[in-house]
Amino acid sequence: MSKGVKKKRKVIRLVMGLILLGVLAGFVGDRLLKRKGHPGLRRFVAQWVGNYPKSFAIEPPLLSIHVGDLELERLQNVVNEARERGVILPEGNEYVSAELTSNGKTFKARVRIKGKMTDHVKGDKWSFRVIAKKDGGFLGMRRFSLQHPGTRNYLYEWVHQRLMRGEGIVALRYGFIRLEFNGEDRGIYAYEEHFGPELLEHNARVDGPLFRFDPGLFWQHRLNEMEGVRYDEPFAAYQAAAVDAYGTGAISKDPKATRDLEEAVALMNAFRNAELPASQVFDADRVARRLALLDVLGGHRSLDWSDAKFYYDPVLRRIEPVAYESFSAHPIRTIAGAYQWAGRTDPSQDLHTAWFNDPVLFKAYIHHLERFSRATYIDSALHALAPALDTASATVYGEFPYKELDASTYYANQRIIRQVLNDPKGFHAYRDGREGDTLSISAVPIGSLPIEIHGIRFGDADPTPVIGGTILPIRQVGKPGVPATFRFLMPAGPDENMDLSVVYSVLGASVRKEEKVLPFRLLDGVGVSPVAGTPRSDLRALPFLSFSDDHRTILLKSGEWTIDKDLVIPAGLVVKGVAPLKLVLKEGARIISSSPVLLQGTDEAPITIAAPEGGSSRVVLMGNGGRSEWGYVHLEGPEKGMSGTGAMLLIDGVGLIMDHCRVTSMADGGMITAVRAELRMDRCMVTGGRDQLASAFSTVVLDHCSFSGASDDCIVARGGALRIVRTQLLNVKGIGLKLNTSAMATLDLAEVQAAGKGIEVKEGSVLTVKESRIHAQGAGVEVAREEMRYGPSIVDLQQVEISGSVPVANGKGNKVTVNGEAFRPTGTADRQ
What we know:
Helix content is about 25%, strand content about 30%. By secondary structure, it is an alpha/beta fold. The strands form six sheets. The protein has a 14-stranded mixed beta sheet, with no helix packed on it. Strands 22-25-28-31-34-37-40-43-46-49-52 form an eleven-stranded parallel beta sheet, with no helix packed on it.
């Protein structure tokens, strides 16, 4: 082989090696870029090629900082300690003297290391807080910060501040410069105005306090977290933070400024204590604009009380927000005001929650969301900002050509906002009935935003306005919606049975919608008969009752007592009873209590409530008087096959905890009914009866319980949430568990034995079953086909033993998974 051929082969191998090395380097570089959220190497190279040359046409402002050797050593010590601790502490981080030069002019100033986290001292791009001495300043600012552009996400904070100022909100001057430090080029920096008189002048505001909630104690909590110290820290809460002004030294020397600050603190504390609503303390419209704009910009990370800054207008005596640190732009999944509405303000609420519970502020927030979420808003804003944005971008590209402003996040967030404001359905509406000339409607919320009811339409007639309150609260996360009642005056002429539709809108929205009213009552079919109009008992005349000295507690005397007419206990009391105690309800008598009932028996001597005769609901707990607690209580129904209406135990709108209790009956009637209630049963037994537990829009927890011998269905739930743990539903003649009307249920380590279906799921309900057994003569688990009103049902079966004529029957449109895999539908449920 000739030398020439060998040389050519070496060159080819070298070239191939370089190509392979380049491909490998490109692959690694692409992966690294994507891990950091960048589209990848190809886009990275295109940005360098396209953007870097743009910086040649721009000569950014140059700012030079010079400090002496001693001052430099003090700054370096702060940087070193911060890097060791992982946080910048205020102790030792004092201002040092410096000279700053800009545009050929030099002025004296004081500088220190700025920030809390170590991103402010990474590499040689330290962040600085600057306070110019009298007659000094930079671009009209005497107080400002200098930091790596990445600490505010480059161009996104620039857009944030410009848009906020355009909406009339006090905004900081923010831009990009080139910085020299002690003669060394530190590259491109972001400057950010700090809080002082120049900020107010630049925003055309009269002199007034600039203030915040002091975050010092909150940052002590963060430092504790970083050092692995975790405990309940009451000092770190929003409610514990002091209102702290910027420039307190100057304020303390000025009587008027001191008085203005005192007014601002007084108003802020009155708001925080829920003594004054937000709309009387703040400029509600400007607060609403800022919150709505943060939704569009994707600045939800800045929605923390420790980041909020304020200005007090001493002329109008109101507080305004100051645009600060947006942490944008991030994709959103919902809006800041979602799931916030409670219909009231309370001192326990966070700053933003209290803001969103002011109707005036919330309406303004929705109004501005509608405006900001139009695509034309971003289009026109970017068009107006284009010349200045081009200059800012070119400056940034001088060092960071790959940090473009990608407006696609803004447009995507606008789409999410429009979707949230335009949910397909705001609530479920039910026709409660007519009383005189008044028609009542029950509405069950399903969304995250409060609804304003404007009226009801009879057929094609003009809407009739609502009587009284008009706001339907939200459905809380993870909980069923709580029904609310609205009343309307019946106009002359319309038939109450004609088609009805409720006219409504999201609170503050311009778009009005209509929702059809279902032609039946909310609780139809559950077997619940409300107790109303029952005359109060003369409690002091009853021999088995005694009162405490303060007349607030009723004591059930020990012994066996016969009750032959309704015992009605009003709200505002507490009923207590201990063993030995037996109450016998004769002649259809009932115990109806609007106050909590506390009964405590023992294993050897349980408290007994016996109802040997048929009749309506025998024990009724209702109203809003608080939670009842029963321990070792036996509720005994008829011993023979007499039937009764209602249920042996009715819980309506209150809470009840039952521990080691028994409910038994040989009659063919209901056993326990819970309506909009919270029921917990631990180690309880329910035997006999027809429907052993009927739950309507309630929260129910069953733990280590036994239900047996139901002559029809065992547990029936409409709406609400059920958790059934280590519980048995045995010898059921009908269906073991029925879920409908968007009910949610979880079964864990449970057992179901039924002559009919094991579990029936329908009307948008959600069921999860884990490590349980279901044995039925009918279908094991049957999921009825999707309902138009409620949507599909969702069933997840995990390690479940199922036997039946059809183990799992899935109707069309539902989602059923078995051990993590989708279940293919059969025809059984489809034919229903």
